[in-house]
Amino acid sequence: LVGGISCPTWRGLQGLEPAGKCGDEMDEEIKELRRAGTPATPKLLNRAMQGSYPPASTFKLASAYAALKLGIIQPNDTIADGGYYRLCEGEAKGCVKRNSGSTAHGSVDLKRALTVSSDVYFYRIGDLAWRQRDELGDDAMQRHIRELGYGSRTGIDLPGESAGTVPDPESEMELAMSLFEADPDYFNGDEALAKDAGRWRSGFSADQAIGQKVNATPLQTANAYAALANGGTLYQPSVLDKITVHDSPDKIVVAYKPKANSTVDFGSARDSFLEGFKGVVDPSISYGGTAVNVFSGFPFSSMPLAGKTGTAQTGEDPKTGYERPDNSLFAAFTLDGNSSWTASAMFEYSGFGSSAAAPAVRHVLESIADGSLYQFQIPEGAVIDAEAAAQQTAATSGGGGD
Description:
With 402 residues, the protein is an alpha+beta fold. Helix content is 33%, strand content 13%. The two termini are 28 Å apart.
C-alpha cells in the first residue's frame, strides 16, 4: 500500500495536537476527538479500511465474475437494455428497477454493460441467479463474490480493518431473528412477521448485483481490481516497504515480501473485463463511458488506464426525512506491465462517481504519470467541490446505481 487518506481527520481540528502526548493528557485529547465527531462524520475512523460502504457499480466486477462462474452469462451474450428491468408483474414498489436517469443503452454485452454501467444488465444477473437457486444454491452468487475478497479482511498490517458484509439468505434470516429475540416488540411480538422480514427476495439479489445490498471498504475494492489487473492474485496489502538501520539506510533489516491470500481465475472473460473498464475512461476504446469526460486529455500513451465509476444511494436522513446525497466512488488500475497502480476512492454524499471520486483519482494517477507525486507536489486543481457535485447528481439522477 503506497498511500491512502481518510477525511475528516483529527489533523485538521483546531487546538488538538495528539502527537507527542501520552497518559492522561492523551486520554483527554482522544475524548475530545470523539466529541468532535458525529455518527455521520467520525473523526477517528479510517474510512479507507475501517469504513464499510455500498460499493455501488464498482461492485459489478464481482457480480459479473460470479455470474460467469455460474454460467448465468457469457461475455458475448447480448441483452436489450430499454432503461428498466421488471422483476415482477404489477405496479408494486420494487417491481421495476431502472437505470440511472432511466437511460436506455440498447444492445449490451458484458463489455458494453461495464463501459456504460448498464444497471439493467446486472439487475438481470441478480434476478436470474435467484430464479435458478434450486439448481445453483440460494447463496451461489455470494459464494463466488467472496472469492474476490468481499466479506473478508484483506489482512493489511494495520488495526481495526473491517470485513464488510455480503448478505445472503441465511444471514438475512439470522439478522431478523436476532432482532426479534433481542426485542420482540421490534416486530410487534409476531415471530411470523419477523421470519417474513428475514425472507430473501429477488429484489435483494438484483440490488446486490449493482453493489447496493452489500458493504465494502475502499481497500477491498482496490484489492479486487488489483487482482483483475495482475491476472488473478489477491495479495495481502502491507504498509511496510522495508526497515533499515537508522544510521545506515542501505542496510535492510526487514523487506516487504508479497504474500498471496488467494487466486481467482477470470478465464477468457478477463479480456472483456479489461476492454469494458478501459472504455469507461478512454474514448478511443468505446463511446459513452461514464468517466470519459473526466479523463479527457489524460496521458493514456504513458499510462494506459481502466476504471469503473460507482454511485451509491445512501437512504433517508432520519433527522430530516429527506433522501441523502449519493456516495461517489471510483476504482482504477493501470495497464502498463512495467508499472502497475490501482486506486480506489469513495466520497460520502458527493454525487455521481464521475463527479467527485473519479476526478480525485485522476489527479493522483496523473501526478504519478508526470512524476510530480514523487516530488510531494499537490496535483493542480486537486480540490473537489463535493456539495456542488452532489447537487448536480440530484438534479439529473432518476434511479439506478451510476
